[in-house]
Amino acid sequence: MKKHILWLVKRLLVVGFALAFAAVLLEVLLRLFVPVTDWPVGEYDPAVGLHRQPNQTGTWVVGFDGEVQGKYHINGQGWNSLQEYTADKPDGTLRIAVIGDSFIEAMQVDVDETYAALAEQALSADGVCPGYDRVEVYNFGFGGAQLSQYLNVMRYVAERYAPDVFIINIFPVNDFDESLADYAPSAYSYFLTFRDDGQGGFVEVPPVPYTPSEVRRLMVKFALVRYVYGNLQLEAVIRRASRDEAPIADLQDELAALTRHIFAEYQRTAEGSGARLLLVMD
């Protein structure tokens, strides 16, 4: 019996050593020969929920050999933009706030090629916006955000930056059902969601405070971890694979009612701040 246990321990040690050696070898090879994503750090902002930690720069890389690469810059307010956002708006300024998910945050391209950056360049051309001396397009995109979180961000933006126009970019694949607290994956608890109140209406479920995992922050210092979860998007793949599509058909009426409710809140928020509202379906 003791010999069997000793043999088993030796085998486990050999396997453990081999795995550790392979991990170290992969770590070295990835650092030397493969573009590996830089992982932006998140934090909790009571006003908006899960948020980017301000003042970060890096390269977002996706793909087996890094075929997609974008240089991001998280400004002092926690958004992917080269410009710093200010509450003060000089006379003659047209300020546009663009709100959305990863399509708007656009980590996959360089920060000066995001939707907001390109829109600002186009609208700042002579004669495009007569009557304005300056055009500012602020990027309020966050990867993973959904229809209900756009409302949360919209309120945050209205209070702090007083834009003249809100553009909300909607992604129909998952923006709707993930706004329901009882259906959305657990990760969406860090965003604003809604729950049916049982009386034909909806109640808001505030974002759960996000507590950064020190273990996770330590792990993403390793190129191998960033490659698997960043380049190969393992977390997103697992989430899609485990997603239960069956209940969506049963939620059609509830989702339609929730969408009308959220759109009405969008309009109410825009009107309350004296802004125009533009909804864009991607």
Task: Detail the topology: elements first, then pairings.
Layout: H1 2-33, E1 42-45, E2 49-52, E3 56-62, E4 68-74, E5 93-100, H2 102-105, H3 115-123, E6 134-141, H4 147-161, E7 165-170, E8 193-196, E9 202-205, H5 214-219, H6 223-231, H7 234-242, H8 246-250, H9 252-272, E10 276-281
Structure characteristics:
alpha/beta; two-stranded antiparallel ribbon; globular; 10 strands; 9 helices; four-stranded parallel beta sheet; single chain; 282 residues
Strand percentage lies at 15-25%
The residue-averaged pLDDT reads 89
Number of helices: 9
Helix fraction by DSSP (H/I, runs of at least 4):
25-40%
Name the poorly predicted regions. Answer: none
Summarize the structure.
This protein has 282 residues and is of the alpha/beta class.
Could you please describe the fold and organization of this structure?
The termini are far apart. The mean pLDDT is 89. The chain is of the alpha/beta class and 282 residues long. The relative contact order is 0.14. Strands 6-5-7-10 form a four-stranded parallel sheet, sandwiched between helices. It is built from nine helices and ten strands.
